[in-house]
Design a protein that fits this description.
Blueprint: E1 2-5, E2 8-11, E3 23-26, E4 29-35, E5 41-49, H1 53-61, H2 63-69, E6 75-82, E7 89-96, E8 102-113, E9 117-124, E10 133-142, E11 145-155, H3 159-180
Antiparallel strand pairs: 1-2, 3-4, 4-5, 5-11, 6-7, 7-8, 8-9, 9-10, 10-11
Helix pairs in contact: 1-2
């Protein structure tokens, strides 16, 4: 893909697929995929963030915080709906800044354990991205912060699966930036 910006041209290449069972370290995030019997992939990510679990948990369930940190680099996020309760729904979208690409998705919260765990579904509005994903986020206190463990099940093979470890790594960088700072007020 080639992008024209002012007089500079930047070329980016599509991410290489992460072979099942192999671990990839992207920045401070470790990612591993595994192929399920139905042919979809499960992505597991871990990242230590130097912040209390409660603050990180809040960033997953506050619509303004989520819209700020979860879009990967070069994208913006918009949360249309977020009902942080078991059975509650959420809906949001990512877009490039010039809106040349957008992806909207939503789901239902299946489990919420304050400061510890979030389980929700993801379903994309685009009919070409079939299926429903199950996302489990566990927040585990460790020395110096919180280990964020994310498992995303049901990812269809292809560009979405190939880019997921990189996109999540960028999102977790954003989350760390948001959570690790101690504001004096």
């Amino acid at each position: 893909m080639t992008t024209k910006t002012n007089t500079k041209t930047t070329t980016t290449t599509a991410p290489k697929p992460l072979p099942a069972g192999k671990t990839l370290t992207v920045g401070a995030t470790r990612a591993m995929t595994e192929e399920a019997k139905d042919g979809t992939l499960t992505l597991r990510l871990t990242r230590v963030i130097k912040a209390p679990a409660e603050r990180i948990y809040q960033c997953f369930l506050d619509p303004d915080a989520l819209a700020k940190w979860i879009p990967p680099h070069g994208m913006v996020g918009h949360v249309d709906r977020l009902e942080p309760k078991v059975g509650g729904r959420y809906h949001m979208s990512f877009a490039t800044i010039n809106r040349s690409w957008t992806q909207s998705f939503g789901g239902v919260y299946n489990e919420l354990v304050p400061g510890k765990r979030i389980v929700h579904t993801d379903k994309f509005d685009d009919p070409n991205n079939k299926g429903e994903l199950l996302v489990t986020i566990d927040l585990v206190p460790v020395q110096g912060g919180t280990e964020v463990r994310i498992e995303q099940r049901g990812i269809p093979k292809g560009p979405m699966a190939d880019g997921a470890p990189y996109g999540w790594s960028q999102s977790l960088d954003n989350l760390a930036t948001m959570c690790e700072i101690e504001l004096p007020f």
